[in-house]
Write the structure tokens for this entry.
Amino acid sequence: MRFLIFGDVVAKIGRRAVAETLPELRRAYAPDLVLANIENLAHGLGFTAQTVKELRDAGVDVFTGGNHIWHKPEGVELLRAGTFPIARPANYPAGAPGNGWVLRSVAGTDVLVVNLIGRVFMKDLVEDPFRTFDAIREAHPANVILVDFHGETTSERGAFAWYVDGRASVLYGTHTHVPTADERIFPRGTGFITDVGMTGARDSVIGVTPESVLPGYLTGIGTRFVWPESGMAVVNALVADVDPATGKTTRIERIKREIPIA
């Protein structure tokens, strides 16, 4: 069983880059399920029905989120209504709209997609992601479990990988937008990468124009962020093969593409 996973898809240029590269990636890798993180999907913050539909039409099956998933009121209402198969971070306090997991049947096998958010250096007050994972796994048993861990630090995500080794099939990090070169399979069979990286503007500061970022560093006075809509895009993704009988990862590979977006 093969999974194709996009990290944070950032703004219009990121959406268009997914749409343009996914057909080629499907031909090359033949994934059974395609996932993408959408917390930065609409103008860099949050998501809307139209922006999610763009990725659905492009061929993405399941979506995950992060701390910006709540940014647009329309997106919050879509989470509340369950309109799309979106897993928002499961360890927000009780009462937060939406669900922290999506359960899909893939070729007769139940696949559980879980979204969690870290606590180190994150501003949101959330519950313990470690024990939240335990509770979800107990309540929704599935042989194949994919976890998007949305976090700031490499250490927290690495520690979580050791905690879930052999109990999660694939653990991949999102949020920092920069891909890490540490993809591996842990001793008990969990495939891991600290951060998949973003799909968005290549010539940017993690997806934002340098011109709108630099004043904050030079003067201490922030300006409104601007997300490019065209130019060179970078596509960062992950392919993971999982044995559906054991739930263990047998192969993991980073993908990187660069394409011009007019």
In short: The two ends are 35 Å apart (CA to CA). The longest helix spans residues 11-29.
